[in-house]
Amino acid sequence: MSYDILKQHLKKHVDLSTADLDLISSYFKPASLKKKEFLLTQGSICKMEGFVLDGCFRVFTFDKKGNENTLYFATKDWWLMDIDSFMNQTPSDLNIQALEDSKVLLIDRQDKMALYELLPIVEKLFRIIFQKGLVSWQRRLVRNHSFTSKERYFHFIQTYPDISSKLMDKQIASYLGISHEFLSKIKKNKK
Amino acid sequence: MSYDILKQHLKKHVDLSTADLDLISSYFKPASLKKKEFLLTQGSICKMEGFVLDGCFRVFTFDKKGNENTLYFATKDWWLMDIDSFMNQTPSDLNIQALEDSKVLLIDRQDKMALYELLPIVEKLFRIIFQKGLVSWQRRLVRNHSFTSKERYFHFIQTYPDISSKLMDKQIASYLGISHEFLSKIKKNKK
DNA sequence: TTCCCCAGTTGAACTTGTTCAACTCTTTTG
DNA sequence: CAAAAGAGTTGAACAAGTTCAACTGGGGAA
């Protein structure tokens, strides 16, 4: 049953009863996306928060110069959303695109709010999820400042071997914040 | 009364009753730090979460090469902590230092946990605080990738004129992730 | 007050990373 | 299957940013 992946994920953060897990899960609806399909596009409002069951997504933004900037990749067990747009119903800065045929569980804003109201432990759950997320964004910033591009590249492929093997070098480069030509030269000089 | 600053801050995120605000505030103890004094040093365990009432702090880390890397500056209304170290009682990667004589409100881990238990709305409060924090870390990463150093510098001083005016250029450079010599050249060429 | 330390500036040489253009090799797509 | 589009590589010229060293000036401590 596909909801088991979600339930296992939630239990990692907070101790939840079976009844609670069932209730939370019941608010999420399964959906499938084909390769290259978008769950969210820049400028539109983020209506859904997603949890990846299978497949792979890229969360990215186009900057003023038209360059793509990848915030993160999401495979099984990762969340997908533009938090700001989802919570405040403002136009999103982000694009969320499936890199391969994928399965997700979705919850809309009203249901998420209802869930927060209905089950206070969900507040704790997401307090902890966001708290952990914040820590990893801080660490990523420090790495960006203190590592060279080469070090960042090898850190990435060593930390996420399963994700990086699915990706094109172009996509990895936009995650690392370097040009794909330069990534090609990094790979040539030390591999 | 110094607790008013905290109360006003909390009310911005969640609608709290006077009784709740009083109760939450009662868990925080005032403390003063002299210029250059540390609230936390790398390697030690973060025992206190802080809220700045007055003054200015720098949150930074030393990387392997011994370079300082500034995560953020905190003036009035900002939180101070190493979330990871505070929650999991693991050795901290961060240093938190007062840049001038400062006043803070502190809460220790046990009291924070007790507060979460006692008043479920505190979970919502910090869920929202962390959620907003996450959004700003994401935006900072995108700026780091899509802006040049010059653009990042002017964005910083325009966004935080009150903070940046208190800082030495060396500290701003370590926040931007560039050498202080190069910052000096940026300021010369376009001011 | 004096001394010294430290922040900031500047220049020169160097390293890192970008841009553009040409080429190859797969992968889609009609 | 053929054509076209996209992913990766390479080189050369360039731009961005670092490093090191020397110098300047101001502020704090004795």
UniProtKB/TrEMBL annotation, chains A, B:
The signal peptide stretch is none
What broad taxonomic lineage does this protein's source fall under? Bacteria, Pseudomonadati, Bacteroidota, Flavobacteriia, Flavobacteriales
Q: Which domain of life is it from?
A: Bacteria
* Matching CDD domains: CAP_ED (cd00038)
Name the keywords, alphabetized.
Kinase, Transferase
Q: Which residues form the Cyclic nucleotide-binding domain?
A: 32-115
| Pfam family, any one | cNMP_binding
Q: Name one GO molecular function term.
A: kinase activity
Name of the protein this chain belongs to: cAMP-binding domain of CRP or a regulatory subunit of cAMP-dependent protein kinases
SUPFAM superfamilies the UniProt entry points to:
cAMP-binding domain-like (SSF51206)
